[in-house]
Write a structure and sequence with these properties.
Blueprint (H helix, E strand, L loop, with lengths): L2 H26 L6 H22 L3 H8 L2 H25 L4 H22 L6 H21 L4 H17 L6 H25 L10 H8 L1 H16 L4 H7 L2 H11 L8 H51 L1
Length: 318
């Protein structure tokens, strides 16, 4: 991988996470629209826009193969419900003063992935991973004890997205085609519901003015653009770099929550975030350490392979 490819990959992935991190501004601009109606529009316009991208990118054959494979469709039916639920909770949280809880959810998501891997894929936790998970658990427990209720927004976002990624691993399809099928599946009930809303005064589309209509129509592009940037970048950078860049999104949400949206940030929140950040620092350090070990082992294996091949050639020449 040359320097230009690496730079373009980092910039693309960073741009994707930056868009996701600043997305509360977009959703807050639609605060007058209910979260459920926003998600319905997001599904419909995303399905149309993603379908167009599939055709332009000549992925129609992959789309057709996926749709005609019952096993894949069964998996995607499940993941479509997970991603739809994740979007709904996230938009609701943003428009109901819970941006900090949303950022906390995406901070702990990598650690939730580790736990899910241990439970469902029987992966063994390394010592550093165990410490990180315990610290994150203490952070969640701290908020629960201080406020007398579980931070359900954070946990729902983390576990729904983590489960989504886990289940999607079972389907050997690309992200673009997979998300397109998921949106097409959800667009059937969503279209029926939006048609009902348009016919009644309870709906906002075509009833609340052109700016609101434009924002609702733009949800498709707003959904697909960071996805495409992410896919482009992920192919050109290492997983370790991608792992660090992913913290851009919850950090953006966190900063917006305490500055632009003026959400309360008490000592309880501060202690919880400190525990989570410490857990992520340990987790990231361990990830980089293991990655470097594997790279070093790979280089050593290649060196030995070249050496054995050279010795064999020299032996044959005698």
């Amino acid at each position: 991988m040359n320097d230009n490819q690496s730079a373009s990959g980092v910039l693309s992935a960073f741009a994707a996470f930056l868009i996701w991190g600043t997305s509360p501004i977009y959703w807050r601009a639609l605060a007058q629209v209910g979260a459920f109606e926003i998600i319905i529009h997001r599904i419909i316009w995303s399905a149309l826009f993603l379908s167009l991208l599939v055709m332009v990118g000549r992925s129609g054959a992959d789309l057709k193969k996926t749709i005609t494979t019952p096993k894949l469709m069964l998996i995607l039916m499940g993941t479509s419900v997970l991603v739809g639920g994740n979007w709904l909770v996230y938009v609701w949280a943003v428009n109901n003063g819970r941006v900090l809880q949303a950022s906390l959810g995406y901070y702990i998501n990598p650690l939730v992935n580790v736990v899910l891997g241990m439970i469902f894929l029987h992966e063994r936790l390394r010592r550093a991973q165990t410490v990180a998970v315990l610290l994150a658990s203490l952070g969640v427990l701290n908020l629960t004890l201080r406020y007398g209720s579980i931070p359900w927004v954070s946990l729902t976002l983390a576990f729904s997205f983590g489960t989504y990624g886990l289940v999607r691993k079972m389907a050997s399809i690309g992200p673009l085609v997979g998300l397109t099928v998921e949106m097409l599946l959800l667009s059937v009930p969503a279209s029926l519901w939006i048609w009902y809303l348009i016919q009644t005064p309870t709906g906002n589309f075509l009833h609340f003015g052109f700016p609101t209509d434009l924002l609702l129509l733009g949800t498709g592009i707003f959904t697909a653009t960071p996805l495409l940037l992410f896919n482009f970048g992920a192919k050109r950078i290492t997983l370790a770099t991608l792992g660090f860049l992913q913290y851009t999104a919850p950090t953006g949400m966190f900063l917006l929550g305490i500055t632009l949206f003026h959400e309360p940030f008490t000592h309880a929140e501060a202690l919880t975030f400190l525990l989570i950040w410490t857990a992520l620092a340990i987790y990231s350090w361990d990830t980089v350490r293991i990655y470097r070990q594997r790279v070093a082992m790979g280089m050593e294996e290649r060196r030995l392979s070249v050496k054995r091949k050279k010795m064999k050639e020299e032996g044959g020449s005698h």
